[in-house]
């Protein structure tokens, strides 16, 4: 992997760390939205937006939801918006599959916490990139992930390949990850790696840590394979295009 620098250590408590990098040309081939489309690009890490206690509460939402299914491979997904849940080698719709029983699993408070956390992350991204929070829209897919060292059974389980979010998902302009468990304590491997021409920069997950970045090819990245334990995170992404916006999930 060449030279690797640690952008954020698990042991650090970072108020805010931001690295500005030149924007790629990706945004030129998409429609531009005033007050939102990235003109300043980069990546940031903060431990000051979500508390560890809130991260633990959110992880419990993920654990309860994922306990209903789970992939046969090492990566399981739960999307509260669409209802997508990994089950074996496939996905099911959580809401259709479990019907009214879903209220025994999730509460209104769970969804209110999810909404509150999403709003705080959105405001912080807007603040750092100097854009308007009201010009950003939540976009899909936004999902919980649970990763362990089980071998991949389908291509959906192969989370470790380098990729660019704007290329993979199209609508993404700003990506964020909220980590819900601790690197080297809850799991080994599983660090987030930005792949730069000169060196790689890693983010070591820590419960409550938010990593966020512009979604173009200036931020090519991958996740290391998890070697042991279980890594929980939630990906929350934003678009500047209102046509690709989605609402918060409702119970």
UniProtKB/TrEMBL annotation:
Domain of life of the source: Eukaryota
Which parts of the sequence belong to the Fe2OG dioxygenase domain? Answer: 140-242
* GO cellular component labels: membrane
UniProt keyword Iron present: yes
Q: Which Pfam families match?
A: 2OG-FeII_Oxy_3
Q: Which cofactor does it need?
A: L-ascorbate
Q: What is a GO molecular function of this protein?
A: L-ascorbic acid binding
Q: Which InterPro entries match?
A: OGFOD3, Oxoglu/Fe-dep_dioxygenase_dom, Pro_4_hyd_alph, Pro_4_hyd_alph_FE2OG_OXY
Record key words, sorted: Dioxygenase, Iron, Metal-binding, Oxidoreductase
- From the Swiss-Prot or TrEMBL record, give the protein name: OGFD3 protein
Q: Which organism is it from?
A: Thryothorus ludovicianus
Which lineage ranks, top first, belong to the organism behind this chain? Eukaryota, Metazoa, Chordata, Craniata, Vertebrata
- List the gene name: Ogfod3
């Amino acid at each position: 992997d060449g030279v690797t620098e640690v952008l954020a250590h698990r042991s650090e408590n970072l108020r805010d760390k931001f690295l500005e990098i030149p924007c790629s040309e990706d945004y030129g081939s998409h429609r531009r939205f005033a007050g939102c489309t990235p003109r300043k690009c980069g990546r940031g890490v903060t431990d000051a937006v979500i508390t560890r206690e809130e991260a633990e509460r959110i992880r419990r939402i993920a654990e309860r939801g994922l306990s209903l299914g789970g992939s046969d491979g090492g990566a399981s997904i739960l999307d509260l918006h669409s209802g997508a849940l990994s089950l074996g080698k496939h996905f099911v719709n959580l809401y259709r599959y479990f019907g009214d029983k879903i209220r025994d699993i999730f509460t209104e408070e769970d969804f209110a916490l999810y909404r509150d956390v999403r709003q705080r992350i959105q405001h912080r991204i807007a603040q750092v990139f100097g854009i308007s929070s009201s010009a950003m829209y939540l976009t899909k897919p936004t999902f919980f992930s649970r990763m362990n060292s089980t071998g991949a059974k389908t291509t959906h389980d192969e989370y470790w390949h380098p990729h660019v979010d704007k290329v993979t998902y199209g609508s993404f302009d700003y990506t964020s990850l909220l980590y819900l468990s601790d690197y080297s304590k809850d799991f080994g491997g599983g660090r987030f790696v930005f792949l730069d021409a000169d060196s790689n920069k890693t983010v070591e997950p820590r419960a409550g840590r938010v990593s966020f970045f512009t979604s173009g090819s200036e931020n090519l990245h991958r996740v290391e394979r998890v070697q042991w334990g279980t890594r929980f995170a939630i990906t929350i992404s934003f678009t500047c295009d209102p046509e690709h916006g989605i609402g918060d999930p409702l119970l």
